[in-house]
Amino acid sequence: MSSALPTDVLDVGTLHGPARVHLTVPARAVAALLLGHGAGGGVDAPDLRAASEAAARLGLAVGLVEQPYRVAGRRAPAPARHLDAAWTAVADHLRSGPLAGLALVVGGRSSGARVACRTAAATGAVAVLCLAFPVRPPGRPDAPDRLGELDAVGVPTLVVQGERDAFGVPPGAPGRDVVVVAGDHGLKKDLAAVAAAVAQWLPRVVGPR
Questions:
Q1: Is 2 part of any domain?
Q2: Is the pLDDT of residue 209 over 70?
Q3: pLDDT (tens digit, 9 = 90+) per residue, 51-84?
Q4: 158 forms bridges with which residues in the sheet?
Q5: What element of type H or E holds 199?
Q6: pLDDT of amino acid 3
Q7: CB 24, CB 93: distance < 8 Å
Q8: How far is the CA of 110 from the CAs of 31, 105, 148, in angstroms?
Q9: Residue 180: strand pairing partners
Q10: Strands 32-36 and 8-12
Q11: What's the sign of the alpha-carbon dihedral 75, 76, 82, 83?
Q12: pLDDT value of position 75
């Protein structure tokens, strides 16, 4: 994470092995943002970095979470129930420790966004940030969509989606803003637009510094 503040790397035990958190906490943090990676990617994804840096500039603590399967060196994702359990364990650990007392925004890119949506209530999140939410597998128009995961989120939600995302673009809904930017599922084409969308939305859900 590009920041003048030091980033701590914490290993957090879960029932499915250790997760790893890259955590930056400024003095007098206004809130916290916890982000997860995509199924086959890591926390260095450009859109995750852009969102993290936008949040850091607003005075939020930022945690980038590596799921246990990635910490163990595997690329194939774990089952959804394992991902959700590990994510919730990390959030609980941080909320009782370095992020105690801070309002928590959760999110991630692609698979990480789905995890954040499914566990929003369990983590006590005040809002959810979805980068490249995967609505439906590419080339499978008859496959069930995942919009139910978005619709079930009971707190304000921002979805930042590439206009040419092969996984589709979710519709807006009450409590859910959808910002469409140039590019595809990787959200690499216009990182400034990704950062701007996050920077404009975060103060609405956590308040200004």
A1: no
A2: no
A3: 999 999 999 999 999 999 999 999 899 999 999 9
A4: 129, 177
A5: helix 191-206
A6: 47
A7: no
A8: 23, 16, 15
A9: 161
A10: unpaired
A11: positive
A12: 87
SS3 of 157-181: the string is: EEEEEECCCCCCCCCCECCEEEEEE
pLDDT of 107 reads 98
- Residue pLDDT, tens place only, 130-167: 999 999 999 888 889 999 999 999 999 999 999 999 99
Direct distance between the N- and C-terminal alpha carbons of the chain, in angstroms, rounded to an integer = 20
CATH code of the domain in which 77 resides: 3.40.50.1820
Residue 4 has pLDDT above 70, yes or no: no
Residue 177 in any domain: the answer is yes
What is the band of 207 on the pLDDT scale with cuts at 50, 70, 90? confident
Rounded Cα distance between 114 and 135, Å, is 10
Rounded to the nearest 5 degrees, what angle is found at the Cα of 192, between the Cα atoms of 54 and 177?
70
Task: Yes or no: say if 105 and 30 are a contact pair by the CB < 8 Å rule.
Answer: no
Find the length of the chain. 209
Range of the domain at 91: 8-206
Q: Is residue 92 part of a domain?
A: yes
For the chain, the domain total comes to 1
The separation between CA 113 and the C-alpha centre of its own chain, rounded to angstroms, equals 5
| Tokens found for residue 140 | 């499978």
User: 57, 69 in Cβ contact below 8 A?
Assistant: no
Rounded distance between C-alpha atoms, residue 116 and residue 84, angstroms: 8
